[in-house]
Specification:
mainly alpha, two-stranded antiparallel sheet, 2 strands, globular
Length: 538
C-alpha cells in the first residue's frame, strides 16, 4: 500500500524505496563535540541492543574520573521486559583550565632547564613533555604510550633524510663543490654584484650543508672580495649569511623544514616550492639590501689571521655544472612527484615519479651521484669516501634525538587534549594559523636561542591541533614556512650562531647585534610575510 493508501505491488514498492534511498541525504549531527556527541554516535538500533560501549582505556572507573579524561554514563535499557543498567564509557573533553595550566607549566619548566640550568635540549624537552602529561592528569600508561608514539612516528619520517642529507652535504663540502658554486657565481656577477652572487650561493649551499659548515667554507671568499675591493667585510658577509640562513631554515632537504613538514604531514614538494618563493624575497631583503646598508655604515676590516691567506685555487675545484646538477636532483624529483599528483596528463608516469620522488629515494640518488661524480672521478678511494660519510653522521645523533623529543611533546599535547583547546582558542580568536605558528616559534626562539628547538616545539604545538588534515597542502606549506621564519628571528646572546658570526667576522657584541641580529630578523620576518600572503590563496 502506498502513502495515500493506494494498492502497490511488491515490485513497485521496491522501486519507490530504491528511489528514496538514492535521494536520501543524512542530516548534519546536532552535537559535534562533548559527551552528547559520543553518546549519540554510539547508539544502536533495538535489534542491536540499543546501546554500544566506547572504551577509553583499560583503566578503572576511578582512575578515569581522576584524570578528567573519561566519564561513565549509566543508562537504563528495557530488554525482554526487564530493566537493567548498562555502563558506557565515553570520551569527554578534559578540563580546559587544567590542560592550559599543565601546558604553560611544562613549557616554563622546559625553558628554565635550558636557559637557567643549561640542561641539554633533548633532556629538557623530554622532561617538559612528561611533566605536561602528569600535570594534565593523563594515566601513566598513556604518558608512556605518547612518548613511544612520538619518538617512533617522528623518527620514521626523518631519520633517513637527515642521514642521507648529512652524507650528501659532506661530499659536497669535502670535494670543494661549495667553493665552486661561490667562485663561479662571483665571477659571473662581477665584483659590483658579488653580494647577490654570495647570497644565492649561500641559499643553495645551505640546503644540503649545515649552516656553520657552509659559513666556514664560504667566508674566505667574502674576505677575499673585501680585501680586493677595499670595502667593509659586511658588504659581502651579510648577503652570504642571509643566503645560508634562508637555505637552512626554509628549504628541504635541510633538517629543520623536513622535521616541521613531517610533523604537520605536508608534502615536501609543496614545502620546497613555498620555501624557495619565501626564501628568495627574504634573501634579497636581508642580504644584498641590508648588506649594502651595513657595509656603508660599519667599516669592518678583514681579520688579520685571514688577510694573508692565498686565494682559492680554482683549478682543483669540480665543475660548476656538475655541482648544480647534483644539487638539483633531489629538488626536481620531489617537486615532480608533487606536481604529478595534481596534473592528470602525468597520470601514466605518476607511479614512477612517486617512487623516484619519495624524499629518501631522491636523496639516495643524489648521494650516489655525488659519491661518483665528486668522489670517485676526483680520485677519492672507497675507503676515503666511507670515512667522510661516517664522520658526517656524528652530528646527526643530536639532531635526531632533539627532533624525536619534539615529537614526544607533540603527541603529549595531542593525546592530553590540549590540541583541541588550542585549536578552539585559535578559532575563537580568528587568528590565521600561519600567524599563530610564527608567533609560537618566535617566542621559543627568543627565549631559548636554538632554531632547532624553536621549530621542534612550534611544530609540536601546531601539529597537535585538530583539523590539520583538512587543510590544503599549500596552506600547510605556508605554516611550515611561518614556523621557519619564527625560528630565525632575533638571534642574540643565547644563540650559538651569534657568537660564531661574531668571532669569524671579528666584530664586537654591539655591532653584531646591529648587523647579524637585524639580518636574522629580516630573514624570518620577510619569509613569514610572504608565506602569509601566499596562504590567502591556499
Amino acid at each position: 500500500m502506498g502513502v495515500k493508501g493506494e494498492p502497490k505491488t511488491p515490485e513497485e514498492m521496491d522501486a519507490i524505496l530504491a528511489e528514496r534511498r538514492a535521494n536520501w541525504k543524512p542530516k548534519a549531527p546536532k552535537y559535534t563535540k562533548g559527551l552528547l556527541k559520543t553518546l549519540l554516535s554510539a547508539r544502536r538500533q533495538p535489534h542491536e541492543g540499543c546501546i554500544h560501549g566506547v572504551n577509553c582505556s583499560a583503566q578503572t572507573t576511578e582512575s578515569k574520573l581522576s584524570g578528567g579524561f573519561c566519564r561513565t554514563a549509566w543508562i537504563s535499557v528495557t530488554k525482554n521486559h526487564e530493566t537493567e543498567e548498562i555502563s558506557m564509557t565515553a570520551v569527554a573533553t578534559p578540563d580546559a583550565a587544567r590542560l592550559v595550566f599543565a601546558a604553560v607549566a611544562g613549557l616554563i619548566l622546559l625553558l628554565i632547564l635550558i636557559i637557567k640550568f643549561k640542561v641539554h635540549a633533548m633532556i629538557s624537552i623530554l622532561i617538559g613533555a612528561v611533566g605536561i602529561g602528569l600535570m594534565a592528569g593523563m594515566p601513566l600508561s598513556d604518558i608512556i604510550g605518547s612518548v613511544n608514539e612520538g619518538i617512533g612516528n617522528t623518527l620514521k619520517g626523518i631519520a633517513l633524510l637527515v642521514g642521507l642529507g648529512s652524507m650528501f652535504g659532506a661530499i659536497l663540502e669535502e670535494s670543494g663543490g661549495a667553493q665552486t658554486l661561490a667562485v663561479t657565481m662571483v665571477r659571473k656577477f662581477g665584483d659590483e654584484k658579488a653580494a647577490w652572487a654570495l647570497g644565492i650561493t649561500g641559499l643553495v649551499v645551505a640546503m644540503p650543508v649545515f649552516f656553520d659548515a657552509g659559513l666556514i667554507i664560504l667566508i674566505p671568499l667574502a674576505f677575499s672580495l673585501a680585501k680586493r675591493t677595499k670595502r667593509s667585510v659586511l658588504y659581502y658577509v651579510i648577503p652570504l649569511l642571509a643566503g645560508l640562513a634562508v637555505g637552512h631554515a626554509f628549504i628541504p632537504p635541510t633538517p629543520g623544514p623536513v622535521l616541521v613538514a613531517t610533523m604537520l604531514g605536508v608534502d615536501l614538494g609543496w614545502v620546497i616550492l613555498v620555501g624557495i618563493f619565501c626564501g628568495i624575497f627574504a634573501m634579497i631583503a636581508a642580504g644584498p639590501i641590508w648588506g649594502s646598508i651595513c657595509g656603508k655604515k660599519y667599516m669592518v676590516e678583514v681579520p688579520e689571521h685571514v688577510a694573508q691567506q692565498a686565494d682559492i685555487d680554482e683549478s682543483k675545484l669540480p665543475k660548476f655544472g656538475t655541482i648544480v646538477g647534483i644539487i638539483m636532483i633531489p629538488l626536481l624529483l620531489i617537486i615532480a612527484n608533487s606536481v604529478a599528483k595534481v596534473v592528470p596528463a602525468l597520470a601514466g608516469i605518476q607511479p614512477v615519479l612517486a617512487f623516484l620522488g619519495e624524499p629518501f629515494m631522491a636523496l639516495l640518488l643524489a648521494t650516489i651521484a655525488a659519491m661518483y661524480l665528486l668522489g670517485t672521478r676526483h680520485g677519492y678511494t672507497n675507503a676515503q669516501l666511507e670515512k667522510i660519510m661516517t664522520k658526517s653522521l656524528e652530528p646527526t645523533g643530536m639532531i635526531l634525538l632533539v627532533t624525536a623529543c619534539g615529537g614526544v611533546l607533540r603527541y603529549m599535547l595531542q593525546n592530553s587534549g590540549l590540541g583541541d583547546v588550542i585549536g578552539n582558542a585559535v578559532a575563537n580568536a580568528s587568528l590565521p594559523l600561519v600567524l599563530v605558528a610564527f608567533i609560537v616559534a618566535a617566542l621559543v626562539r627568543i627565549s631559548v636561542g636554538s632554531a632547532t628547538v624553536a621549530m621542534t616545539m612550534a611544530a609540536g604545538i601546531i601539529s597537535a591541533m585538530p583539523g590539520l588534515s583538512e587543510l590544503s597542502p599549500l596552506y600547510l606549506a605556508c605554516v611550515t614556512a611561518a614556523i621557519a621564519g619564527g625560528s630565525t628571528v632575533c638571534s642574540h646572546f643565547n644563540d650559538s650562531g651569534f657568537w660564531l658570526v661574531k668571532s669569524l667576522v671579528g666584530m664586537d657584541e654591539k655591532t653584531t647585534l646591529k648587523t647579524w641580529t637585524i639580518m636574522e630578523t629580516l630573514v624570518g620576518g620577510v619569509g613569514f610575510l610572504v608565506a602569509l600572503i601566499i596562504s590567502f590563496f591556499a
